[in-house]
Amino acid sequence: ENFEGNIENQQFYLTPDALVLFYQPGEYTPASYGLFEIAIPYSDIKDLFSQANPISRMTT
Fold it and tell me: How far apart are CA 12 and CA 7, in angstroms?
């Protein structure tokens, strides 16, 4: 994957298919597990966005 980083204090990023939340090692899991990520497919949350939202256009 081509993840190149994030804005300081940003704890999410967008992929073509999902909103990905991430947490620092040791925040919710043992530090030895590494970065903890939760990918939420846009199809699961598309009803939460207004039609004017750019993410809405990605889910159609």
Answer: 9
